[in-house]
């Protein structure tokens, strides 16, 4: 049995990694985090996007369930909502309103990010071999050939914490490139694509009678040579709505209450503003700007040390508008677990390299989807659309138009956005045929509301829109 593994970062990726390490038989799993972790589902400092909307997609939830069995039931018991993508969402896409179907489709869970993190952390820490220490990791120990541990900064200076395996799951703020330089491993390529997205979110009490109102989203339009602007009303635990607006560079949402409402009403459809105009706000507007796509191509490095794994946002981050981050973190931890099972322990030769390459595959898929859209916004920094981007964009637009009235086209989109299949699902023969055939039904002139939902919306509307 291996002696010790150290995980840097107590966020979602770090706690899932700790779980698979303990399950693999590591005698001691130490999770380091510089923050004081809350003792309940509350926002913490080290999670800049924590106050904004997060979607736990089908694929990511399945991966989490493999690592922490029963986590979905725990979330639902704590107040998370299970939303069907086929029937439980009102979505206005850049091509118009999408239909809702009375057929089975993938589901997602909606709740605050704080509840996800707390629920996973509480479940993982039930394992007796896992502990969390409040400490800042400031470097790696060892050599270019093998990492031997982590250098930790504390009140009495710096000390070394030895480990058979180190997992960097420190998130967007990772210093992995600098740490590798300290071992003599330089030249890692990093790419940043930044649409300048600003998120603004506010929590409301769900009005009486609106408890079953669908998740509602007006999506950003990347095809009109203007800044992207979007808004979402998402049910979360505690009989609340989490309302998040997002705007790319030049179209940022304001941080004041009046401007927040006006922003939602000025979207291509004012439905979000109409809903919240009659709802009671419970918080101020919270704004965040930590949203760029950043890819550290560690998996392409010509040399990689044994004993070091990088997962989650430390490997690649994505514009949070696309709801991929939590799922990609779970996929990476699942790769670690499967490779540990095959290798028989964390000190097996070549393990770190195999995990890194395996974890990079879902990162690359999510990166392609996020960056492929972000480069279309006129003020994006770090990339412009190429010929391949424009070809994929044209096909995606055609598929989205077909999805307004084609269940086959809609299913392909749901499967990809829910992350239960790779993006190649869009090019399966049935999906291609649906895209080429187009929608057999006419375009919707407005949101596909039931009579009861329309009554709720009209009853809440204080705008006269």
CATH homologous superfamily label of the largest domain: D-Amino Acid Oxidase, subunit A, domain 2
At the fold tier of CATH, the topology name of the largest domain is D-Amino Acid Oxidase, Chain A, domain 2
CATH architecture of the largest domain: 2-Layer Sandwich
Overall tally of domains: 2
Q: Helicity level, as a percent range?
A: 25-40%
Largest sheet: 8 strands, mixed
Radius of gyration, in angstroms, nearest whole number: 22 Å
Model description:
Keywords: Signal. It comes from Streptomyces tendae. It holds the Pfam family FAD_binding_3. This is FAD-dependent oxidoreductase. There is one protein chain. Helices cover about 35% and strands about 20% of the residues. It has 2 domains: about 5-45 and about 115-195 and about 290-370, FAD/NAD(P)-binding domain; about 55-110 and about 200-290 and about 385-465, D-Amino Acid Oxidase, subunit A, domain 2 (D-Amino Acid Oxidase, Chain A, domain 2, 2-Layer Sandwich), CATH 3.30.9.10. The protein is globular. Helix 1 (about 10-25) runs parallel beside helix 4 (about 115-125), helix 10 (about 385-405) packs across helix 11 and helix 10 (about 385-405) packs across helix 12 (about 430-435). Strands 5, 6, 14, 15, 16, 17, 18 and 19 form an 8-stranded mixed sheet that branches. Strands 8-2-1-12-21 form a 5-stranded parallel sheet. Strands 3-7-4 form a 3-stranded antiparallel sheet. It has helices at about 10-25, 60-65, 70-75, 115-125, 175-180, 255-265, 270-275, 325-345, 350-375, 385-405, 405-415, 430-435, 450-460, and strands at about 5-10, 30-35, 55, 80-85, 90-95, 95, 105-110, 130-135, 135-140, 145-155, 155-160, 165-170, 190-195, 200-205, 215-220, 230-235, 240-245, 280, 285-290, 295, 310, 315. With about 475 residues, it is an alpha+beta fold.
